[in-house]
Amino acid sequence: MNLLSTELIITFSIYSFFIFYLQKWSSVFRGGNPYFETFLNFFMGFATIYGLGFLVYFGYKFNWSSPLILFGISLLIKGAMIMVESILFARVRYIVEFLGTVGFIVVPILGYRLLVISGLL
Fold this sequence. Notes:
121 residues, mainly alpha, 4 helices
């Protein structure tokens, strides 16, 4: 069984891409609704802890080099995705908020998909 399949690498990279934009939106949030700000911070925090917990559990269950390799490869892919996004959407005014809003839907789906693809579920 190949632990680091292409599907797992791509899924984790997209997951971390949307987490990056949730973290960025949380840090620059200047809205007038403190309830939404609290929800955004909790969702972003839970999603970040879930991603780190997935890496730790993946390493515990299989071997410790796999999550380090997965993290390194996804860091490179996520950096490339952020660079492409910043070039393509440089003139879009609320791109961080848009990608963060999409992240509310995509992150739970990708989180579940990570467990299914890796065989941890």
